[in-house]
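Re: that backbone. Tokens:
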């Protein structure tokens, strides 16, 4: 396959496998009312998905250093389907919803980064960097498609049937990859050459990698906090100014907001290649934190249309460094440690994904979910979390430069900026 065909195949499978991904997020107002959930409970169910991901990813992604990633990928797609079916058939409150949401998170842990490993192992140079940006951006397309699919089907046939039908997405993806993606013939050689399984010391000792892992956690804290609560936030904003004419469907806006990750990630990666990855990441994360500091205080104070526009702008700002972060880690990893590096990076990063929705819900409940000040405080918490990313890059990159006896920018930044 050509690089373009490979990228198309993997991105299509990724998006199909995420068909049920945003189901709970798209149905927060409905399920919160039906199950009488508090803001903290909503945050718990939302965060359970990323908790499942975080707990499974160090095992499943590290195994790609020792086993054919294709086998891990296919079995994990089935876990995603089972999570969606279980949610559709059995979820009746916080506990079972969180359980099946976590199972879906395990499924994503075995498909997202292992899929990226399958793809990047077959590419080199600038093609690899661009593939990472497109692949990570396709995550947003899958999320947006899930918002639209679940939102549309729920209006027509109810949310349980919507979840059940969405389970067909990962099943279709597993069939497509089983047929079109050949097994890795180097599996035995990989197992012989790679270090001891789950020995993360070499990865954790690399300050440049750890800086980007912490920045990824801060990025995910903000991004997934926004994605998890966007529909509920817009519903609140609409209620503050019911006379405003512009009230687009919340699930549609949520889909558009997440869809922005693809162009933002791809364009951001191209800009970073010219201005430097580290400079781009720090600048974008600082800008997104500034938007968060004002967005939550706007409902009722400005026209609803402006709130929608700024919410989408915030989504773009929280996404624009996504591909650059991941591409820089892939470039920095030694080939024999690549799976382990990606596992540590993803585990730390999705710790932020787990915490973001929960912290948002906790702050919102403490400050008042029915008050503009409560939403403002919750968004301020998102922005504060985002700022830990630039801080980690400044501190740990300085340590990396000292370790290299006064070298310049970390190697992964130089290679990404030059397109090598």
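Recovered sequence:
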């Amino acid at each position: 396959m050509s690089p373009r065909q490979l990228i198309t195949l993997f991105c299509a499978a990724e998006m199909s496998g995420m068909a049920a991904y945003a189901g709970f997020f798209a149905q927060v107002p409905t399920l919160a009312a039906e199950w009488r959930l508090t803001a903290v409970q909503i945050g718990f169910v939302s965060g359970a998905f990323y908790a499942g991901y975080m707990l499974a990813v160090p095992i499943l992604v590290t195994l790609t250093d020792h086993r054919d990633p294709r086998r891990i990928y296919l079995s994990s797609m089935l876990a995603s389907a089972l999570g969606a079916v279980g949610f559709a058939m059995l979820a009746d409150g916080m506990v079972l919803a969180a359980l099946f949401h976590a199972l879906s998170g395990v499924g994503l842990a075995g498909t997202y980064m292992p899929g990226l490993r399958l793809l990047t192992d077959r590419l080199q140079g600038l093609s690899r960097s661009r593939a990472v940006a497109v692949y990570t951006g396709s995550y947003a397309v899958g999320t947006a498609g899930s918002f639209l699919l679940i939102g549309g089907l729920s209006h027509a046939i109810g949310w349980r049937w919507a979840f059940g039908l969405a389970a067909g997405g990962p099943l279709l993806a597993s069939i497509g990859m089983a047929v079109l993606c050949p097994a890795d013939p180097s599996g035995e050689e990989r197992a012989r050459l790679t270090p001891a399984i789950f020995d993360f010391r070499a990865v954790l000792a690399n300050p440049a990698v750890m800086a980007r892992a912490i920045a990824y956690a801060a990025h995910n804290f903000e991004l997934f906090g926004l994605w998890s609560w966007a529909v509920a936030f817009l519903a609140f904003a609409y209620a503050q100014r019911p006379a405003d004419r512009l009230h687009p469907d919340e699930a549609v806006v949520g889909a558009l907001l997440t869809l922005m990750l693809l162009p933002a990630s791809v364009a951001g990666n191209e800009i970073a290649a010219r201005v430097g990855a580290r400079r781009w990441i720090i600048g974008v994360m600082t800008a997104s934190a500034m938007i968060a500091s004002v967005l939550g205080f706007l409902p009722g104070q400005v026209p609803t249309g402006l709130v929608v526009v700024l919410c989408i702008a915030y989504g773009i700002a929280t996404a624009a460094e996504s591909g650059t972060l991941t591409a820089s880690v892939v470039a920095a990893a030694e080939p024999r440690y690549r799976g382990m590096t990606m596992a540590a990076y993803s585990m730390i990063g999705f710790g932020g994904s787990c915490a973001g929705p929960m912290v948002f819900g906790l702050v919102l409940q403490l400050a008042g979910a029915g008050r503009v000040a409560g939403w403002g405080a919750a968004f301020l918490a998102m922005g504060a979390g985002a700022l830990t990313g630039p801080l980690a890059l400044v501190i740990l990159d300085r340590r990396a430069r000292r370790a290299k006896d006064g070298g310049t920018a970390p190697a992964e930044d130089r290679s990404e900026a030059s397109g090598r």
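The domain at 3-182+200-418 is CATH 1.20.1250.20 (Growth Hormone; Chain: A;). Residues 407-420 have pLDDT under 50 and may be disordered.
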